[in-house]
Amino acid sequence: MTVYYMCFLLFLVGLYGMVTRRNLIKIVISFTIMEFSVFLFFALIGYVENGEAPILTKNLPENPVFVDPLPQAMVLTAIVIGLATSAMLLAIAIRLYKKYGTFNIREINNLRG
Amino acid sequence: MKGLTPIVKKVAQLMSGIICIYGIYIVVHGHLTPGGAFAGGIILAGAFILLILAFGSEVIKLRKEETGSSVTESFSILVTLILATAGLLIGSKVFFNNYLPKGEVGELVSAGAVPLYNILIGIEVAAAIITIFLALIIFKEEEEQR
Amino acid sequence: MIIGAIYALHANDLLSAVIAQGIVGYGLVICFLHLRAPDLAIVQIVVETITLIIMVAVVLDSSRKELKTPPGWKERVNILLGLIFIGLMIYFFDGAIASLEAFGEHSLRMSQVYVEEGARRTGAANLVTGVLWDFRGYDTLGEATILFTAALGVLTVLRLKGKN
Fold first, then answer.
1. Domain membership flag for residue A56
2. Within a domain: residue A57?
3. How close C46 gets to chain B, by Cα (Å)?
4. A58, B131, C33, C106: least CB-packed within 10 angstroms?
5. Does residue A72 lie in a domain region?
6. In this predicted complex, what is the ipTM?
7. Could you list the residue range(s) of the whole structural domain that residue A32 is in?
8. What number of H helices and E strands is found in chain B?
9. How far apart are CA B45 and CA B49, in angstroms?
10. Distance, in angstroms, between B7 CA and closest chain A CA?
11. Separation between Cα atoms, residue C104 and residue A69, nearest integer Å
């Protein structure tokens, strides 16, 4: 059970970074760290002790015990969705930099209008 | 963004060919070995990005490439939807079902329509990643020229 | 991984923060290999490489210093509220974990049918791909739509098409 606590600690580090940092790129980095912790949690739930990877090959033992394939299919989709989200966030960030000249969100708030 | 020295250009051309063949292998054998559409598609996009990074960028050449990659991406999603709707008309009357005959487990031609879906979505993922990357590079080059 | 994440938040230079993000990403690949998931490891490696390339292209073009202004009183209230919220979340997480089974003793309640009948009904040797395309096909169709929309969104935000 301590493995679940370490995974939650990674989530909390990402959440702390998202609330307190003022630089736009560090906010994007905290967002991806929070996403990674959720992927790790899903993969940890589906683990069976002494299980094999869920692929049928030629030389398997008699009654193989497989790791759960359903959470792995969900995380596979979620990783690519995370890439799409990061690409959109970085496009918005580079456009904000070209318009205001800084990455700091306090200065952008003061410069606007 | 200027290009790099001629040694890097030649090595990049060689490596890009090898990476392209490896990406096609992972996409086509998606139902037998780990991999599938998403991993293979992004590897194919990586081969193309290597060529762009080694040869530098001029905006006029890149705009034509970017039109081509957007059209490829839209076209392959259209073919996927046509293939999924064809299951509605023939075979079992359910949308997006696996209706082609399934062969033996472990052969290359097996598992119904899954290899076809893998190839089509692999092309679509590669074209989407190339479009995102080219959009960022063209944006930076235009800002520099002004 | 946790040490890399903490360094990524407190680095002075933005380029160091991006490289520390790479530590977290590649450490996740080793975790996936230990948990017997080769599909996830392959996808995570290539996605992390593409994310690092895009981030370095964004960061190199700008000034890389982070201004160190001392936090005013508004920011101190912010940090205090954040810490209180984190304490509440730890308390609720304790209660939620107690109802999970122990680590490594998954009972495969829903996936027993997928593992036993998967090879016969889909004909694929890779069980994860068979589940992804046959039993859970709609999720994959929606995910292809999300990638398509993201590419379209990046083109719109950077105003490459439709310029007057």
1. no
2. no
3. 7
4. A58
5. yes
6. 0.89
7. 2-48+66-111
8. 4, 0
9. 6
10. 32
11. 14
